[in-house]
Amino acid sequence: MSTGSRNFSKMPDSLWAATAPAGPDCLPLSGERLTELCVIGGGFTGLSAAYHAAEAGANVVLVEAAEPGWGAAGRNGGQVIPGLKLDPDDLERRFGAERGRRLVDFAGAAPDLVFELIAKHQIECGARRQGWVHAVHSSGAMPLEEDRVRQWQARGAALEILDRDQVAAVLGTDEYIAGVLDPRGGWLQPLAYARGLARAAQSAGASLHGMTPATRIDRKTDEWQITTPAGNVIAKQVLVCTNAYTEQLWPRLTRSLIPVTSYQVATEPLSGELRSRILPKGHVSSDTRRLLRYFCMTPEGRLVMGGRGHIRERESRKLYAHIIDSIHQLFPEASGARLDYYWSGRVAVTLDHLPKICELGPGMWSGGGYNGRGVAMATSMGRLLAKYAGGASADSLPLPPTVVRPLPFHSLRGPAIGMAVAWKLMLDSWEARATRGGGAHS
Ligand SMILES: Cc1cc2nc3c(=O)[nH]c(=O)nc-3n(C[C@H](O)[C@H](O)[C@H](O)COP(=O)(O)OP(=O)(O)OC[C@H]3O[C@@H](n4cnc5c(N)ncnc54)[C@H](O)[C@@H]3O)c2cc1C
After folding, report:
1. Which protein residue has the closest C-alpha to ligand 1 atom 35?
2. Is ligand 1 within 6 A of the CB of residue 374?
3. How far apart are the CA of 328 and the centre of ligand 1, in A?
4. How many Cβ atoms sit within 10 Å of the Cβ of residue 147?
5. How confident is the model at residue 291 (pLDDT cuts 50, 70, 90)?
6. How many whole angstroms separate alpha carbon 179 and alpha carbon 23?
7. Which pLDDT tens digit goes with each residue over 371-419?
8. What is the pLDDT of residues 96-112, one digit of tens each?
9. Are 188 and 378 in contact (CB under 8 A)?
10. What's the 3-state SS for 162-225?
11. For 278, how many CA atoms within 13 A lie in the half-sphere containing its CB?
12. Rounded distance, CA 161 to CA 405, Å?
């Protein structure tokens, strides 16, 4: 297996890696292991799948190339966001009324599972549930937001629209014309949560092996052999939970997802004065820009700002320029703050904005493609994958398994994403300027 530019021996230099409690021991696999279920990848999807399958009584071995939480799970913004990118009506149109309704319920309730697991296993990850604010950057984005609120309210969710003054009070910036407050959302320290899930999976009986990259998966009669550097796993079933980091392990799966790099910076702890003005009540937020910005305040008072960037996962400071600009623009009073941490990770994007369960072979499935909303969704998808491996019928699942569909022209994704990023940045700033200047936009 090619590991590309990935350095599995080191966690990224993120704020989360610097502040999370240590993870549990996960010794590398050696020798041969027979098991019912092998989970490949120790992010939220894989850890949740391993936990739920082991809790249901399955014999589970999880192999992780680095350590649990090394991938997007331990690098993200920690925003626990309900729902999918597509709205409830849209989902019911696509999947039919009955399955669509189940998918809407599944996605809307995804944060509940996260907070239940944290409470049940007493995971110390600073979890709070003050709500997620979708901040509206232009008048053109408003009708969609109003419609989304109406659709969720019709299904019993208590979303509310915040006007310009209300959103300014909640976020501490007057850059936005309105916002939608979704009380189902919240925040957690993502690496601490991933490590807590790893402990929960071990307590439920799963064997977790770090520094154990799966290098091949082969069908042997009616079982799968997963080859790793110092041993093999022979499993009846396999869950491939490597998401945007899959690479050569299963090239067709890799080519079905677009890996987009997302960047974050964290300031030094801010003064009490600034903390009382920026996100004073602990909300988290991402905005409606095409190239969205997302931000939160950590318990120790650091402002964390993130945003999407390019395809390459390079560690050049130039790639963070637009994130730093976002701090200057949204929170000018914090623009003098020292930046203590810079880090990035891969988001798995799908063309239709929907996550996927794919059937890769008999008894082998993958789960991923959360389009930047994986904290809650990956946790729920892991449970779904565990149920499916445990014998649940495809009909009983909210998200039907599909065949894996590699994207045509996947190899051209670099230049294509580069152009799309530049185009979206231009449209976003044009729209925001038009809105600020009172220009018409529809
Ligand atoms: C910077 C950033 C910010 C984000 N912010 C948010 C947010 O605020 N809210 C939100 O909801 N979502 C956010 N996301 C998305 C979210 O983090 C992901 O959707 C989620 O973590 C996906 O979890 P996962 O378990 O599927 O994948 P990952 O966490 O990426 O896990 C995949 C794992 O597979 C392992 N692996 C890969 N190849 C192999 C192999 N051959 N053998 C063994 N192991 C292997 C990797 O080491 C990795 O640990 C963000 C993502 C990024 C990158």
Report:
1. 41
2. yes
3. 28
4. 12
5. confident
6. 37
7. 999 999 999 999 999 999 999 999 889 998 999 999 886 665 666 666 6
8. 999 999 999 999 999 99
9. no
10. ECHHHHHHHHCCCCCCEEEEECCCEECCHHHHHHHHHHHHHHCCCEEECCCCCCEEEEECCEEE
11. 26
12. 38
Mean pLDDT, residues 293-319 taken together: 84
- Tokens representing 48 are 């949740």
Closest among 136, 78, 70, 77 to 323, alpha carbons compared? 77
Most informative mutation of 227, 243, 360, 366 for ligand 1 (most atoms within 8 A of CB)? 243
Ligand 1 centre distance from Cα of residue 80 (Å): 14
Q: How confident is the model at residue 439 (pLDDT cuts 50, 70, 90)?
A: very low
Mean pLDDT of 58-83: 98
Strand partners, 63: 40, 209
Tell me how far apart the alpha carbons of residues 187 and 48 are, in angstroms, rounded to a whole number.
Answer: 18
CA distance 418 to 410: 14
Cα angle 330-332-334, degrees, rounded to a multiple of 5: 105
Pocket flag, ligand 1, residue 76 (CB < 6 Å): yes
Q: How remote is the C-alpha of 205 from its chain's centroid?
A: 26
Q: Are the C-beta atoms of 194 and 62 separated by less than 8 Å? A: no
The pLDDT of residue 3 is above 60: no
**Rounded Cα gap, residues 360 and 256, in angstroms:** 12
State residue 415's pLDDT score: 61
Please measure the distance between the N-terminal and C-terminal CA atoms of the chain and give it in whole angstroms. 49
- C-alpha to C-alpha distance for 366 and 278, rounded to whole angstroms: 40
Cα–Cα dist 24/42, whole Å: 12
Residue 89 has pLDDT above 90, yes or no: yes
Cβ neighbours around 194 below 10 Å, total: 32
Under the banding of pLDDT at 50, 70 and 90, the label for residue 4 is very low
Q: Please state the separation of Cα 179 from the chain's center in Å.
A: 22
Per-residue confidence band for 316, with pLDDT thresholds at 50, 70 and 90: confident
Question: Cα 172 to chain center, whole Å?
Answer: 25
Return d(Cα 162, Cα 155) in angstroms, integer.
20
C-beta of 64 in contact with ligand 1 (< 6 A): yes
Summarize the chain as % helix, strand, coil (round to 5).
40, 25, 40
User: What pLDDT is recorded for position 41?
Assistant: 98
